[in-house]
Write a structure and sequence with these properties.
With 301 residues, the chain is of the alpha/beta class. It has 2 domains: 7-129, Glutathione S-transferase Yfyf (Class Pi), Chain A, domain 2 (Up-down Bundle); 140-299, Rossmann fold. It has 13 helices and 8 strands. The strands form 2 sheets. The protein has a 4-stranded parallel beta sheet with strand order 2-1-3-4, with helices on both faces. Strands 6-5-7-8 form a 4-stranded parallel beta sheet, sandwiched between helices. Helix 1 (21-34) links the parallel strand 1 and strand 2 (37-40). The longest helix has 20 residues, at 83-102.
Length: 301
């Protein structure tokens, strides 16, 4: 049992407050169960999902310097449950910390925009951390194992890491960007069986979906087919944008590839919280497009 309480500045992001509200719901249920305190950054803005820099790198850096500065004001690390937000904000944090040492004029320019708008300047005094890293590196898998009351035995879980979590930043301290194991280690901790397949670290296709939907859906379909062929009962992802392409659009994916799939796709905190005894209703498992009932039935729920 942990002797100290973990506390984070919580950056929920856009998707978890809209199309994937069950992610916000399950994150709060999981952290509450583990005794992790979240202070929501209600004044934070969208990270830009990588699109701001298409117009201006300075725009992306300034917007996200403000987001990070909100966490710095609380003297807390910034916690997100979105791989895209982690990749974007984490990379901005890396870039601005480098600017502190090597290009102070650029950082002064960024902070000049912030102070002009009455915002606190970026200081580079905190970290940007995904929920997965917080569970593995801060809370610890052994401590999570002590909290498990419902082992997810016989459940075969296929991780879908996606792009940004692993390769959105220049440096990743918690896993191998090409041969990761952190998600699989979480699965083992809660009693589930990890399923390995080729596409688990590849792009889900979401970035293509607005202008090349057929190609996007073919990518998603390929990953889902591979996971099913490898014996997965479900996919588990740490990214709500991946969840949108793999779950919400799975019916459209099926039409494009001409094959029925029906593979449930869970958010990471939903899976862990189930093992901690949280009820499916508290986790929003009824909000998914692809029914999660087969998962619950396999767990006897």
């Amino acid at each position: 049992m942990r002797s100290s309480t973990l506390k984070y500045a919580y950056f929920p992001g856009c998707v978890a407050q809209g199309a994937c509200r069950e992610l916000d719901q399950s994150t709060k249920a999981l952290t509450r169960t583990l005794g992790i305190e979240l202070v929501e950054l209600k004044k934070a803005s969208c990270c830009g999902s990588g699109t701001f820099k298409e117009d201006s790198q300075l725009l992306e850096d300034t917007v996200n310097a403000r987001n990070i500065a909100l966490a710095e004001q609380l003297n807390l690390p910034l916690l997100t449950h979105c791989s895209t937000c982690q990749g974007v904000i984490g990379h901005v944090d890396e870039r601005l910390k480098d600017a502190q040492a090597n290009d102070p004029a650029y950082l002064e320019q960024v902070n000049g925009f912030l102070t002009k708008e009455g915002c606190s300047p970026y200081k580079g005094s905190t970290d940007v951390k995904h929920l997965l890293w917080a569970l593995v590196a801060d809370y610890g898998l052994e401590a999570i194992a002590e909290q498990v009351t419902r082992k997810l035995s016989n459940l075969n879980c296929a991780a879908f890491y996606g792009c940004y979590l692993l390769r959105g930043q220049d440096h990743i301290r918690y896993d191998d960007p090409f041969k990761p194991e952190s998600m699989e280690n979480v699965f083992r901790t809660v009693g589930a069986t990890p399923i390995y397949y080729r596409g688990r670290t590849q792009c889900c296709g979401w970035p293509l979906s607005s202008y090349a939907p057929e190609q996007s859906f073919k990518m998603a379909g390929m990953h889902i087919q591979e996971a099913i062929a490898a014996g997965a009962d479900c996919m588990v992802t740490p990214c709500p944008l991946c969840h949108l392409n793999l779950d919400s659009r799975q019916p459209e994916v099926e039409k494009v590839i001409g094959q029925k799939l029906g593979l449930p796709v869970l958010h990471l905190p939903q899976l862990v919280a189930l093992a901690l005894g949280v009820s499916p209703n508290e986790l929003g498992l009824d909000r998914h497009i692809v029914s999660t009932r087969p998962v619950l039935e396999k767990l006897g729920l």
